[in-house]
From TrEMBL:
GO terms for biological process: riboflavin biosynthetic process. It comes from Vulcaniibacterium tengchongense. This is Riboflavin synthase. Residues 1-97, 98-194 form the Lumazine-binding domain. Pfam families: Lum_binding. The keyword Chloroplast does not apply. Pathway: Cofactor biosynthesis; riboflavin biosynthesis; riboflavin from 2-hydroxy-3-oxobutyl phosphate and 5-amino-6-(D-ribitylamino)uracil: step 2/2. It catalyses: 2 6,7-dimethyl-8-(1-D-ribityl)lumazine + H(+) = 5-amino-6-(D-ribitylamino)uracil + riboflavin. Its EC number is 2.5.1.9. Catalyzes the dismutation of two molecules of 6,7-dimethyl-8-ribityllumazine, resulting in the formation of riboflavin and 5-amino-6-(D-ribitylamino)uracil. One of its GO terms (molecular function) is riboflavin synthase activity. It is an enzyme of class 2 (transferase). InterPro entries: ATP_synth_asu-like_sf (IPR023366), Lumazine-bd (IPR001783), Lumazine-bd_dom (IPR026017), Riboflavin_synthase-like_b-brl (IPR017938). Homotrimer.
């Protein structure tokens, strides 16, 4: 589990084809990395990946064809900035919301506009996911826990404070860029419970 509070921004250092899927090497950049262990989960742009090798400045993780097809990871170029978060511990503060790292779909940055010192970002999203997005609810975009300001049939809008922009890969994002989306866990379970009634 993760919180959607990005701990550091790294870069995609290498992509290696291995037996039909890929091994990604991630340069950890500003991610606090002391005490990392094999088998640990790290969210990479909101995708939960398992550390299969590491050194002092990077880690490698295998990405299955399912992960590559359903997230933005398969289309990233070497050098792309990455939002990184290590898995939470039971004693951690939950500064964002509960995030599993299981991406529900891919959206796109539709618009960015200035709003005083903040920025308003609009994201297009698959219609099938928008039914789970609620005004003032939470959504995870590229691993960042955000509050939804508005939602309609084509997408949703959030406000990003200067800290969020400068301390995440959003600092380098542009209109048209694809993003990983994870809906709030609670919405999934509520739907499942109601379906069984």
């Amino acid at each position: 589990m993760f919180t959607g509070i990005v701990e550091g921004v790294g870069r995609l250092a290498a992509v290696e084809d291995l037996g039909g899927d890929k091994r990604l090497t991630v340069a950890v950049g500003t991610l606090p990395f002391a005490g990392v262990r094999l088998g640990e989960s790290i969210a990479v742009n909101g995708v939960c990946l398992t550390v299969v090798a590491f050194d002092a400045a990077s880690f490698a993780a295998d990405a299955s064809n399912e992960t590559l097809a359903l997230t933005t990871l398969g289309g990233l170029a070497v050098g792309a900035p990455l939002n990184l978060e290590r898995a939470m511990r039971p004693s951690d503060r939950l500064g964002g919301h509960l995030v599993s790292g299981h991406v529900d779909g891919v959206g796109r940055v539709a618009a960015i506009r200035e709003d005083a010192r903040a920025q308003r970002w609009r994201f297009e999203a698959p219609r099938a996911l928008l039914r789970y997005v609620a005004r003032k609810g939470s959504i995870c975009v590229d691993g960042v826990s955000l509050t939804v300001n508005d939602v309609d049939d084509a997408g949703f809008e959030v406000a990003l404070i200067p800290h969020t922009v400068t301390h995440t890969a959003f600092a380098q994002a542009r209109v048209g860029d694809p993003v990983n989306l994870e809906i709030d866990l609670v919405a999934r379970y509520v739907e499942r419970l109601l379906a069984d009634r």
